[in-house]
Amino acid sequence: MDYAQNFYLQPTSIQSNSNKNQTSHNIQQFKLQKNSNLPWSTSSTTTTAIDIIQINLTKSKVATAHLAKLASEININQFLVQEPYVKEGKIASVPRKWHQWLSSNNKAGIISLPSTNNPIFICSATNLTAIKIQTITGPVNLISAYSSPYAELQDTAQDLANLLTKIGPEQALIGADMNAPSTLWGYANNRPRGNIMEDLISGFNLHLLNEKNSKPTFQRRNAKGWPDLTLVKGVQLARTASWKVRDELSLSDHKYIHTQLGINVQNHTYTRFKTAYGGHRKFSMHFRKEIPQIQQQLLDCNTRERLDETTSFLQRAIFRCCQKAYKLKKVKQSTKITWWTQELNIKKKEMRAVQKRANNTTGTEQTRYQLLFSRKQAFY
Fold it and tell me: What distance in Å separates the CA atoms of residue 115 and residue 99, rounded to the nearest whole number?
């Protein structure tokens, strides 16, 4: 069955979910172009990978707050989250400096850490949200999606199909909790929901990063499963990707899924000056030396091109004088976790030890450790 052509033939309009209003966006206008002519007032650094964490937070305030602790321990650029703890239309319990986007039903979200360039928001539909980041090889779309086991999966699949159709040949990574059992990603049997996802994957030539024999991405005392899928659009992007289920305690019944994309990203930072602590006289002294040349260029302006050149010269002159007169302002890239204490760290280690014992035992002993883990987790 040609899923892309026969089943999802009519892509519908996708609405953005901003705080002020909702407007329809043509996704093509957000295409990013590789730009080698950087502004003279910026500096750039290059990272060799994009680290993405995917997880269903089960609407837990504690699990959502724990993202900040994880980000302080390992390198993370983006979070693709499902069912985060939401308050007043925003993902709560995370640092304010983190950028965030939510689907219109608040069940799928993306969090971008300030250590990366500001991404471009693409759209929010009922069951998904999407952003675009620029890499050296071109734009990459990041998509977070969720489908409740009690909802029609076809609605979320339709949202995904609409978006994948609109972004055209651009690369994309999808982190989704679809609750769609299939033997392709670990379940013992196929279900109709799994068949829908298989058709979507084949119809859009997506690459499944999940490993068939991986650890469960969802686990409770009496249940386990693999509902969380990581999909990639684009052969080259898929070749650079690594995928694993992490062992850290997430304080959710889902596990952290760590995807690393081995592509280079340039991070650009604007130079900022400290102007509140003096230096103005020194700036004036240096700028006076620039005035005669600026005046002459203004007198010679007789075309639009000359006016552009003069404007650029004026900006550069101001920037040079600022460099001589003011100190540079340093921007903090990380947020200290003030609520994390040594006592919490000890309790976390105790929980981890009990969880390991529960995983390595069977029968009544396993049940006993599972109950002990549940009590310790509730107390934590």
Answer: 11
**Percentage of residues in the chain having pLDDT higher than 70:** 79
pLDDT for residue 377 is more than 70: no
Confidence check: pLDDT of 197 > 70 = yes
Annotated domain spans of the chain? 44-267, 279-325, 342-379
User: Residues 13-62: pLDDT tens digits?
Assistant: 444 444 433 434 444 444 444 444 456 666 667 778 899 999 999 999 99
Structure tokens, 54:
């995917």
| SS3 assignment for the chain | CCHHHHHCCCCCCCECCCCCCCCECCHHHHCCCCCCCCCCCEEEEEECCEEEEEEECCCCHHHHHHHHHHHHHCCCCEEEEECCCEECCEECCCCCCCEEEECCCCCEEEEECCCCCCCEEEEECCCEEEEEEEECCEEEEEEEEECCCCCCHHHHHHHHHHHHHHHCCCEEEEEEECCCCCHHHCCCCCCHHHHHHHHHHHHCCEEECCCCCCCCCEEECCEEECCEEEEEECHHHHHHEEEEECCCCCCCCECCEEEEECCCEEEEEECCEECCCCCHHHHHHHHHHHHHHHHHHHHCCCCHHHHHHHHHHHHHHHHHHHHHHCEECCCCCCCCCCCCCHHHHHHHHHHHHHHHHHHHCCHHHHHHHHHHHHHHHHHC
Threshold 0.85, pTM exceeds: no
Q: Which conformational region is residue 87 in: left (phi greater than 0), alpha (psi within -120 to 50 degrees), or beta? A: beta
Neighbours of 341 (CB within 10 A): 10
> For domain 44-267, which architecture applies?
4-Layer Sandwich (3.60)
Neighbours of 232 (CB within 10 A): 23
List the structure tokens of 135: 């890499």
